[in-house]
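Below is a filled-in request sheet from our internal design queue. Each sheet records the structural input a requester submitted and the sequence that came back. We keep these sheets so that new team members can see what a complete request looks like end to end.

REQUESTER: design group, bay 2
PRIORITY: normal
MODE: inverse folding
CHAIN LENGTH: 261
BACKBONE (tokenized):
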């Protein structure tokens, strides 16, 4: 019982100091992941771990990294990205060259840079407002630098690797052309308000970690943020079973279109 109280106190203190509500995440997964981190770092209780986190920025970033489950690859699930490239983006550009695109929970930047490559290939990158947000400042710092291990690029088409990256030993540097067009900023999806009028919102492999109540709130917020006809692109384990309640309808597997067009 004391162990439960210890973790509940940790949840309370994290929310007070960071506005991150760990109670909105699936408890068993979150507790297991954070217990592993706490013990690895040599703290007997979550209370002592929290105190250390508040004094040590590196430990705090490690906590955020563990909490946000950064799985980082470009072009993850390539057949879905091919659909973005060959169908959805061309359809959008026919209607409007000045698209508004958002990569939500963008982690270390692979996803928004994938979007940027697709838009650049279609000659539209300079006309598009491309926003990328995440709760983790450490991940955002990495994203802004745009430097990645070769393994992150394993699914990127070869022509794009040559065109949009500069290789230095095992590291690949994203081109300045892409970096200057992506606006990275910090955001807590569950607490902060969203901008509106988006043509495309990409939020993949994050929602799965939230409770059903938190998912419901998030889908409502995403729907309000989309313009009529806009698309929400989710991860391969995040199918929305009743999209109609959010004013959405299936557009393809893992793509949902906002009704109203």
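RETURNED SEQUENCE:
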């Amino acid at each position: 019982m004391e162990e439960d109280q210890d973790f509940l106190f940790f949840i309370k203190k994290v929310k007070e100091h960071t506005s991150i509500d760990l109670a909105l995440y699936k408890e068993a997964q979150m507790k297991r992941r954070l217990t592993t981190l706490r013990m690895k770092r040599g703290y007997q209780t979550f209370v002592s771990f929290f105190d250390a986190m508040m004094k040590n920025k590196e430990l705090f970033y490690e906590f955020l990294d563990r909490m946000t489950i950064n799985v980082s690859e470009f072009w993850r699930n390539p057949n879905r990205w091919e659909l973005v490239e060959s169908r959805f983006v061309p359809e959008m550009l026919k209607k409007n060259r000045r698209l508004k695109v958002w990569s939500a929970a963008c982690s270390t930047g692979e996803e928004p840079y994938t979007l940027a490559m697709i838009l650049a290939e279609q000659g539209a990158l300079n006309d598009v407002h491309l926003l990328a947000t995440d709760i983790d400042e450490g991940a955002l710092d990495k994203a802004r630098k745009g430097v990645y291990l070769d393994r992150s690029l394993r699914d990127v088409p070869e022509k794009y690797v040559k065109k949009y990256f500069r290789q230095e030993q095992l590291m690949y540097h994203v081109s300045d052309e892409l970096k200057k067009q992506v606006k990275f900023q910090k955001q807590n999806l569950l607490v902060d308000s969203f901008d509106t009028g988006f043509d495309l919102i990409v939020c993949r492999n994050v929602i799965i970690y939230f409770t059903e109540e938190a998912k419901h709130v998030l889908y409502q917020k995403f729907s309000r943020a989309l313009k009529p006809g806009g698309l929400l692109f989710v991860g391969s384990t995040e199918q929305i079973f009743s999209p109609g309640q959010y004013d959405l309808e299936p557009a393809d597997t893992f793509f949902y279109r906002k009704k109203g067009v």
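SHEET NOTES:
- The two ends are 54 Å apart (CA to CA).
- The beta strands are 100-104, 129-134, 147-149, 165-168, 171-174, 182-186, 198-203, 226-234, 248-252, 255-258.
FILED BY: M.R.
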